[in-house]
Amino acid sequence: MNGLTLVETLSLIERKALPALAENYSDAKSIAEKSSLSLDQAFRAIEWLASKGFAEIKEEKNKSISLSDEGKKALKEGLVERKLVNELAKLKGKSDLAKLGKALGKDLNIALGFARKKAWIGIAKEKDKMIISLTGLEKEKSIEEKLIERINEGKLAKLSDEEKNALNELMKRNLVVEREESSRLARISKKGSEALKQVGKVKEEINVLSSDLIKTGAWKKAGFRRFNVQDPCPPLFAGKKQPYMQFLEQVRLKMIELGFKEMQTRLIELEFYNFDVLFQPQNHPARSWTDTFQLRKPSKGKLPEKKIVEAVKASHETGFASGSKGWRYAWNEEIAGKLMPLAHGTANSAMQLVKGVEVPGKYFTFARVFRPDVMDATHLTEFNQLEGFVVAEDINFRHLLGMLKQFAIEIAGAEKVRFIPDYYPFTEPSVQLNALHPELGWVEFAGAGMFRPEVLRPLGIHAEAVAWGLGVDRLAMFKLGIKDVRQLFSQDLEWLRQSKMVVI
Fold first, then answer.
1. Nearest to 287 by CA among 340, 327, 326
2. Alpha-carbon Rg of the chain, whole angstroms?
3. Strand pairing partners for 366?
4. Which residues face 435 on adjacent strands?
5. What does the pLDDT look like over 7-64, one tens digit per residue?
6. Does an H or E element contain 128, and which?
7. Which residues contact 45 (CB under 8 A, 6 or more apart)?
8. Domains assigned to the chain
């Protein structure tokens, strides 16, 4: 863009401020006065002109000396040492400490110290009393008193060494304060001087075309502001939801659109739902403190109705009517009643199965689960799972594999997936879903399988059910293109600002 076009893009306040800039630096106040602008308008115009190369700005730091509130009080009432000698003058130049104490109160000791330092008073002992008397030197104003007056009048010029020492003393006494003030000064640049020739007479311009201007036809005679649309603009960071929250909402919407019903979830759950309903024996290693957290207080919860509890007990001990012999041990109701942070999302499926399900039916939930894992790029001690199951008369394992592959491709955007045989106490057959991450390699996405008869039959469900627990945090890693799961919960503003809208 040539110089003329750039000049034509100047706003009205810039055109007024430019002629007010001189070759020497001046402050915004003087520029505002010369250009008939407000101080705020002058500040803005100077910054805008500088950004376009028409002005040069420098910052100066100046120190100023002024009276504190205590200093203003001293100016009005006198320094404490002056109050002391004035009181002594009333007492004919001599008095004991008791009388002076009544007049000066808590300031007496301070006043005595400063007055004695200035040799305004003498102290002597007479008949077991401390007698204070004037020396005559108090008739002259002290350097400190003169400085306070000069500071108040703004006439603090070059100081002698003695005056500098006195000023430091006033600062120590908190009567005078030193402030550092910054000021921005501006002058016209070489480019600005050339542009000044083209600015010409300043006239009002139209920035916004209103309906009145169109109706009256006044726009035909008006001058229109010209804008430079080629210069780069600072980035604008619009408000938006955190990327991971966007992802979770998109997944929830996708599941609902597919006809899934959302199940209830809780952070604290009974071992009964975490393990027992799911046919996981009470002596299983995964139920130990090394693999799960325990709740200390309260430690026990209320089990569901006795009929359900007895059916689950029979499943563990004898296999109930599932066709198996169960685990063949004495099931303990006390263990099942313990409370714990949710260990896996399948506990929510167990609760839904106990409540009852429609056949056919599809269910899902987002579960916040807790495990004592070592944190790394793909593991957290507290994470999310996308839990769900489908129950139907004719559903089979191949349906499950197809669903899992579809989840990985459509939701996470994974390009390669693989299935590995796995084991879970509550499903048979069981499978592990992996997806290939471009930097982390093969990452486990989900554990899944078909609910065992020992889980379904005691609850009165005679259909088949496929179930899965997807690591939704890891799904998000793929979708958002990150290589560390901890970044999902990052407070890095740069990453949050630069992240794109999530669309599944």
1. 340
2. 42
3. 386
4. 417, 443
5. 777 888 888 888 888 888 888 889 999 988 999 999 999 998 998 889 999 888 878 8
6. none
7. 11, 13, 14, 16, 17, 31, 35, 37
8. 3-62+180-211 (1.10.10.10), 69-175 (1.10.10.10), 245-498 (3.30.930.10)
